[in-house]
UniProtKB/TrEMBL annotation:
<feature type="signal peptide">
    <location>
        <begin position="1"/>
        <end position="20"/>
    </location>
</feature>
<dbReference type="Pfam" id="PF13379">
    <property type="entry name" value="NMT1_2"/>
</dbReference>
<keyword id="KW-0732">Signal</keyword>
<comment type="similarity">
    <text>Belongs to the bacterial solute-binding protein SsuA/TauA family.</text>
</comment>
<dbReference type="GO" id="GO:0042597">
    <property type="term" value="C:periplasmic space"/>
</dbReference>
<protein>
    <recommendedName>
        <fullName>ABC transporter substrate-binding protein</fullName>
    </recommendedName>
</protein>
Length: 330
Protein backbone atom coordinates (compact mmCIF):
# COMPACT_ATOMS: atom_id res chain seq x y z
CA UNK A 1 0.00 0.00 0.00
CA UNK A 2 2.77 2.40 1.00
CA UNK A 3 4.60 1.53 -2.20
CA UNK A 4 1.58 2.43 -4.33
CA UNK A 5 1.00 5.61 -2.29
CA UNK A 6 4.63 6.60 -2.80
CA UNK A 7 4.34 5.96 -6.53
CA UNK A 8 1.11 7.96 -6.62
CA UNK A 9 2.68 10.91 -4.78
CA UNK A 10 5.74 10.78 -7.04
CA UNK A 11 3.49 10.89 -10.08
CA UNK A 12 1.49 13.77 -8.56
CA UNK A 13 4.60 15.84 -7.84
CA UNK A 14 6.02 15.07 -11.27
CA UNK A 15 2.79 16.26 -12.89
CA UNK A 16 2.76 19.35 -10.68
CA UNK A 17 6.30 20.16 -11.77
CA UNK A 18 5.30 19.80 -15.42
CA UNK A 19 2.26 22.03 -14.96
CA UNK A 20 4.29 24.62 -13.07
CA UNK A 21 6.88 24.60 -15.82
CA UNK A 22 4.16 25.08 -18.42
CA UNK A 23 2.63 28.02 -16.57
CA UNK A 24 6.00 29.80 -16.44
CA UNK A 25 6.60 29.44 -20.17
CA UNK A 26 6.35 32.93 -21.72
CA UNK A 27 3.40 33.56 -24.00
CA UNK A 28 4.56 34.55 -27.47
CA UNK A 29 3.21 37.58 -29.30
CA UNK A 30 4.43 38.63 -32.73
CA UNK A 31 4.40 42.37 -33.46
CA UNK A 32 4.47 43.80 -36.95
CA UNK A 33 5.60 47.44 -36.99
CA UNK A 34 4.88 49.45 -40.13
CA UNK A 35 8.41 50.90 -40.17
CA UNK A 36 11.52 51.04 -38.01
CA UNK A 37 11.26 54.49 -36.43
CA UNK A 38 12.64 56.23 -33.35
CA UNK A 39 9.11 57.68 -33.25
CA UNK A 40 8.37 54.31 -31.60
CA UNK A 41 11.00 54.72 -28.88
CA UNK A 42 8.80 53.52 -25.96
CA UNK A 43 8.31 50.18 -27.73
CA UNK A 44 12.06 49.62 -28.09
CA UNK A 45 12.61 50.71 -24.49
CA UNK A 46 10.01 48.17 -23.34
CA UNK A 47 11.88 45.48 -25.26
CA UNK A 48 15.37 46.46 -24.09
CA UNK A 49 14.42 47.04 -20.46
CA UNK A 50 12.72 43.65 -20.30
CA UNK A 51 9.25 45.00 -19.56
CA UNK A 52 7.56 42.41 -21.79
CA UNK A 53 9.54 39.62 -20.13
CA UNK A 54 8.50 40.94 -16.71
CA UNK A 55 4.92 40.43 -17.82
CA UNK A 56 5.64 36.86 -18.90
CA UNK A 57 5.64 37.56 -22.61
CA UNK A 58 8.02 36.58 -25.38
CA UNK A 59 7.76 39.26 -28.06
CA UNK A 60 8.99 38.87 -31.62
CA UNK A 61 9.27 42.14 -33.54
CA UNK A 62 9.33 42.40 -37.32
CA UNK A 63 9.18 45.40 -39.63
CA UNK A 64 6.58 45.14 -42.40
CA UNK A 65 6.76 48.23 -44.64
CA UNK A 66 3.34 49.58 -45.61
CA UNK A 67 0.11 49.75 -43.64
CA UNK A 68 -1.67 47.48 -46.13
CA UNK A 69 0.99 44.80 -45.73
CA UNK A 70 0.83 45.04 -41.93
CA UNK A 71 -2.94 44.60 -42.04
CA UNK A 72 -2.61 41.63 -44.38
CA UNK A 73 -0.20 39.98 -41.93
CA UNK A 74 -2.56 40.66 -39.02
CA UNK A 75 -5.71 39.46 -40.75
CA UNK A 76 -4.02 36.31 -42.06
CA UNK A 77 -2.59 35.38 -38.66
CA UNK A 78 1.04 36.07 -39.53
CA UNK A 79 1.26 38.40 -36.52
CA UNK A 80 -0.88 38.88 -33.43
CA UNK A 81 -0.39 42.63 -32.93
CA UNK A 82 0.13 45.43 -35.44
CA UNK A 83 1.81 48.76 -34.72
CA UNK A 84 0.47 51.11 -37.36
CA UNK A 85 -1.66 54.21 -37.84
CA UNK A 86 -5.23 54.04 -36.50
CA UNK A 87 -6.58 54.92 -39.92
CA UNK A 88 -5.79 51.37 -41.08
CA UNK A 89 -8.33 49.92 -38.64
CA UNK A 90 -10.92 52.28 -40.12
CA UNK A 91 -10.03 51.22 -43.67
CA UNK A 92 -10.51 47.57 -42.68
CA UNK A 93 -13.85 48.40 -41.07
CA UNK A 94 -14.97 50.28 -44.19
CA UNK A 95 -14.33 47.13 -46.21
CA UNK A 96 -16.88 45.30 -44.07
CA UNK A 97 -14.55 43.06 -42.04
CA UNK A 98 -16.49 40.56 -39.92
CA UNK A 99 -13.64 40.44 -37.40
CA UNK A 100 -12.87 44.11 -36.58
CA UNK A 101 -9.33 45.32 -35.97
CA UNK A 102 -9.37 46.97 -32.55
CA UNK A 103 -7.04 49.69 -31.24
CA UNK A 104 -6.07 48.84 -27.66
CA UNK A 105 -2.87 50.75 -26.80
CA UNK A 106 -1.78 54.11 -28.19
CA UNK A 107 1.97 54.65 -28.60
CA UNK A 108 2.29 58.06 -30.28
CA UNK A 109 -0.15 60.96 -30.02
CA UNK A 110 0.97 63.51 -32.61
CA UNK A 111 2.10 63.47 -36.19
CA UNK A 112 5.83 62.76 -36.34
CA UNK A 113 6.79 64.73 -39.44
CA UNK A 114 8.48 68.10 -39.89
CA UNK A 115 8.46 70.60 -42.71
CA UNK A 116 12.00 70.88 -44.03
CA UNK A 117 13.04 73.75 -46.30
CA UNK A 118 15.95 73.58 -48.68
CA UNK A 119 16.94 77.10 -47.62
CA UNK A 120 17.30 78.40 -44.09
CA UNK A 121 14.71 80.98 -43.04
CA UNK A 122 14.14 82.53 -39.64
CA UNK A 123 10.84 84.18 -40.62
CA UNK A 124 8.98 81.19 -42.09
CA UNK A 125 5.23 81.42 -42.61
CA UNK A 126 3.14 78.81 -44.40
CA UNK A 127 2.16 81.18 -47.20
CA UNK A 128 5.77 80.85 -48.43
CA UNK A 129 4.77 77.39 -49.68
CA UNK A 130 2.51 78.88 -52.34
CA UNK A 131 3.96 78.35 -55.79
CA UNK A 132 6.66 75.99 -54.50
CA UNK A 133 7.40 72.32 -55.20
CA UNK A 134 6.46 70.34 -52.09
CA UNK A 135 7.61 66.73 -51.71
CA UNK A 136 4.89 65.16 -49.58
CA UNK A 137 4.08 61.69 -48.28
CA UNK A 138 2.18 58.91 -50.04
CA UNK A 139 -1.56 59.41 -50.54
CA UNK A 140 -3.88 57.76 -48.02
CA UNK A 141 -1.36 57.53 -45.18
CA UNK A 142 -1.54 59.61 -42.01
CA UNK A 143 1.53 61.76 -42.83
CA UNK A 144 -0.01 62.86 -46.12
CA UNK A 145 -3.45 63.45 -44.62
CA UNK A 146 -2.02 65.47 -41.74
CA UNK A 147 0.20 67.40 -44.14
CA UNK A 148 -2.76 68.44 -46.29
CA UNK A 149 -4.88 69.16 -43.20
CA UNK A 150 -2.25 71.60 -41.91
CA UNK A 151 -1.89 73.28 -45.30
CA UNK A 152 -5.66 73.82 -45.49
CA UNK A 153 -5.61 75.16 -41.94
CA UNK A 154 -3.24 77.85 -43.24
CA UNK A 155 -5.50 78.59 -46.24
CA UNK A 156 -3.34 76.71 -48.74
CA UNK A 157 -4.98 74.51 -51.37
CA UNK A 158 -2.63 71.47 -51.60
CA UNK A 159 -3.74 70.69 -55.15
CA UNK A 160 -3.89 74.25 -56.47
CA UNK A 161 -1.50 76.55 -54.61
CA UNK A 162 1.67 74.46 -55.00
CA UNK A 163 3.09 71.51 -56.90
CA UNK A 164 2.49 68.56 -54.59
CA UNK A 165 4.53 65.40 -55.30
CA UNK A 166 3.05 62.23 -53.77
CA UNK A 167 4.21 59.42 -56.04
CA UNK A 168 7.53 58.64 -54.33
CA UNK A 169 7.82 55.62 -52.03
CA UNK A 170 8.16 56.40 -48.34
CA UNK A 171 11.66 54.94 -48.11
CA UNK A 172 12.87 57.12 -51.01
CA UNK A 173 11.42 60.50 -50.01
CA UNK A 174 14.46 61.70 -48.05
CA UNK A 175 16.94 60.65 -50.73
CA UNK A 176 14.81 62.29 -53.44
CA UNK A 177 14.93 65.60 -51.61
CA UNK A 178 18.65 65.22 -50.99
CA UNK A 179 19.18 64.70 -54.73
CA UNK A 180 17.40 67.95 -55.57
CA UNK A 181 13.66 67.24 -55.79
CA UNK A 182 11.45 69.90 -54.22
CA UNK A 183 11.94 73.14 -52.31
CA UNK A 184 10.20 71.66 -49.25
CA UNK A 185 9.76 68.15 -47.93
CA UNK A 186 7.74 66.44 -45.19
CA UNK A 187 10.10 64.23 -43.16
CA UNK A 188 10.18 62.11 -40.03
CA UNK A 189 13.10 62.08 -37.67
CA UNK A 190 16.00 61.35 -37.74
CA UNK A 191 16.16 62.45 -41.40
CA UNK A 192 15.08 65.99 -40.48
CA UNK A 193 17.89 66.39 -37.92
CA UNK A 194 20.40 64.66 -40.20
CA UNK A 195 19.59 67.03 -43.05
CA UNK A 196 20.12 69.99 -40.74
CA UNK A 197 23.48 68.64 -39.60
CA UNK A 198 24.57 68.03 -43.19
CA UNK A 199 23.23 71.37 -44.45
CA UNK A 200 20.81 69.72 -46.86
CA UNK A 201 17.69 71.27 -45.32
CA UNK A 202 16.32 73.15 -42.34
CA UNK A 203 13.30 72.40 -40.12
CA UNK A 204 10.89 75.33 -40.33
CA UNK A 205 7.69 73.83 -38.84
CA UNK A 206 6.27 70.80 -37.04
CA UNK A 207 3.21 69.06 -38.46
CA UNK A 208 2.75 67.46 -35.04
CA UNK A 209 2.38 70.81 -33.32
CA UNK A 210 0.18 72.17 -36.08
CA UNK A 211 -2.29 69.27 -36.23
CA UNK A 212 -2.79 68.64 -32.51
CA UNK A 213 -3.25 65.40 -30.61
CA UNK A 214 -4.25 62.35 -32.66
CA UNK A 215 -3.91 58.56 -32.25
CA UNK A 216 -1.08 58.49 -34.73
CA UNK A 217 0.46 55.07 -34.06
CA UNK A 218 -1.41 52.42 -32.10
CA UNK A 219 -1.09 48.76 -31.17
CA UNK A 220 -4.08 46.88 -32.55
CA UNK A 221 -5.30 43.34 -32.97
CA UNK A 222 -8.33 41.41 -34.15
CA UNK A 223 -11.41 41.32 -31.91
CA UNK A 224 -11.30 37.51 -32.02
CA UNK A 225 -7.76 37.56 -30.62
CA UNK A 226 -8.83 39.83 -27.74
CA UNK A 227 -11.76 37.50 -27.02
CA UNK A 228 -9.41 34.52 -26.71
CA UNK A 229 -6.32 36.21 -25.25
CA UNK A 230 -7.47 39.07 -23.03
CA UNK A 231 -4.91 38.26 -20.32
CA UNK A 232 -2.04 38.38 -22.82
CA UNK A 233 -3.24 41.71 -24.22
CA UNK A 234 -3.36 43.11 -20.69
CA UNK A 235 0.21 42.00 -20.05
CA UNK A 236 1.28 43.48 -23.37
CA UNK A 237 -0.35 46.81 -22.56
CA UNK A 238 1.25 46.83 -19.12
CA UNK A 239 4.68 46.53 -20.75
CA UNK A 240 3.90 49.31 -23.22
CA UNK A 241 2.86 51.60 -20.36
CA UNK A 242 6.10 50.86 -18.50
CA UNK A 243 8.04 51.81 -21.65
CA UNK A 244 6.08 55.03 -22.01
CA UNK A 245 6.66 56.00 -18.40
CA UNK A 246 10.37 55.24 -18.67
CA UNK A 247 10.78 57.49 -21.70
CA UNK A 248 8.76 60.25 -20.05
CA UNK A 249 10.96 60.19 -16.94
CA UNK A 250 14.38 59.98 -18.61
CA UNK A 251 16.47 62.30 -20.74
CA UNK A 252 16.64 62.19 -24.52
CA UNK A 253 20.22 60.94 -24.25
CA UNK A 254 19.25 58.09 -21.93
CA UNK A 255 16.47 57.02 -24.28
CA UNK A 256 18.77 57.34 -27.31
CA UNK A 257 21.35 55.14 -25.56
CA UNK A 258 18.78 52.42 -24.83
CA UNK A 259 17.32 52.29 -28.34
CA UNK A 260 20.63 52.79 -30.16
CA UNK A 261 20.93 49.13 -31.19
CA UNK A 262 17.82 49.54 -33.35
CA UNK A 263 19.42 52.45 -35.22
CA UNK A 264 23.07 51.51 -35.60
CA UNK A 265 23.47 53.56 -38.80
CA UNK A 266 22.43 56.80 -37.09
CA UNK A 267 24.88 59.12 -35.36
CA UNK A 268 24.11 58.97 -31.59
CA UNK A 269 24.00 62.78 -31.38
CA UNK A 270 21.41 62.95 -34.17
CA UNK A 271 19.43 60.23 -32.43
CA UNK A 272 19.47 62.25 -29.20
CA UNK A 273 18.44 65.46 -31.00
CA UNK A 274 15.56 63.69 -32.73
CA UNK A 275 14.28 62.09 -29.50
CA UNK A 276 14.47 65.50 -27.82
CA UNK A 277 12.31 67.01 -30.57
CA UNK A 278 9.65 64.37 -30.06
CA UNK A 279 9.77 64.77 -26.29
CA UNK A 280 9.41 68.54 -26.50
CA UNK A 281 6.31 68.37 -28.66
CA UNK A 282 4.70 65.53 -26.70
CA UNK A 283 4.74 62.99 -29.52
CA UNK A 284 5.33 60.02 -27.21
CA UNK A 285 2.09 59.20 -25.40
CA UNK A 286 2.68 58.89 -21.65
CA UNK A 287 -0.08 56.29 -21.29
CA UNK A 288 -1.78 53.89 -23.75
CA UNK A 289 -5.28 55.41 -23.52
CA UNK A 290 -6.81 56.47 -26.84
CA UNK A 291 -9.60 58.89 -25.96
CA UNK A 292 -12.64 59.75 -28.04
CA UNK A 293 -11.58 63.36 -28.69
CA UNK A 294 -8.38 62.12 -30.37
CA UNK A 295 -10.39 59.57 -32.35
CA UNK A 296 -12.70 62.27 -33.65
CA UNK A 297 -9.74 64.49 -34.59
CA UNK A 298 -8.29 61.59 -36.58
CA UNK A 299 -11.52 61.21 -38.51
CA UNK A 300 -11.75 64.96 -39.13
CA UNK A 301 -8.31 64.77 -40.75
CA UNK A 302 -9.29 61.72 -42.83
CA UNK A 303 -12.52 63.40 -43.87
CA UNK A 304 -10.65 66.54 -44.93
CA UNK A 305 -8.42 64.35 -47.12
CA UNK A 306 -11.43 62.60 -48.71
CA UNK A 307 -10.40 59.22 -47.30
CA UNK A 308 -13.35 58.63 -44.94
CA UNK A 309 -16.46 56.92 -46.35
CA UNK A 310 -18.34 57.22 -43.06
CA UNK A 311 -17.55 57.89 -39.40
CA UNK A 312 -16.26 54.84 -37.52
CA UNK A 313 -17.71 54.05 -34.12
CA UNK A 314 -15.25 54.71 -31.30
CA UNK A 315 -16.65 51.93 -29.10
CA UNK A 316 -16.41 49.41 -31.92
CA UNK A 317 -12.81 50.01 -32.98
CA UNK A 318 -11.26 51.24 -29.73
CA UNK A 319 -10.94 49.28 -26.50
CA UNK A 320 -9.47 51.28 -23.60
CA UNK A 321 -10.07 48.62 -20.94
CA UNK A 322 -6.50 47.31 -20.98
CA UNK A 323 -4.92 50.77 -21.12
CA UNK A 324 -6.97 52.07 -18.20
CA UNK A 325 -6.13 49.02 -16.10
CA UNK A 326 -2.43 49.45 -16.91
CA UNK A 327 -2.48 53.09 -15.83
CA UNK A 328 -4.37 52.27 -12.66
CA UNK A 329 -1.93 49.46 -11.87
CA UNK A 330 -4.55 46.73 -11.79
Amino acid sequence: MKRFLALGLAAFFAMTAVLTGCSSTPEKIRIGEVTRSLFYAPQYVALEKGFFKEEGLEVELSTIPGGDKVMSALLSGGIEVALVGSETSIYVSQQGAADPVVNFAQLTQTDGTFLVSRTKMDDFTFDKLKGSVFLGQRKGGMPQMVGEYVLKKHNINPQGDLELIQNIEFKNIASSFASGTGAYVQLFEPEASRFEQEGIGHVVASFGKESGTVPYTVFMTKQSYIDSNAAAIQKFTNAVYKGQQWVASHSAKETADVIGKYFEQIDPKILETAVQRYLEQGSYATDPILDEKEWNQLQDIMDSAGELKQRAEYNKLVNTTFAIQSKEGK
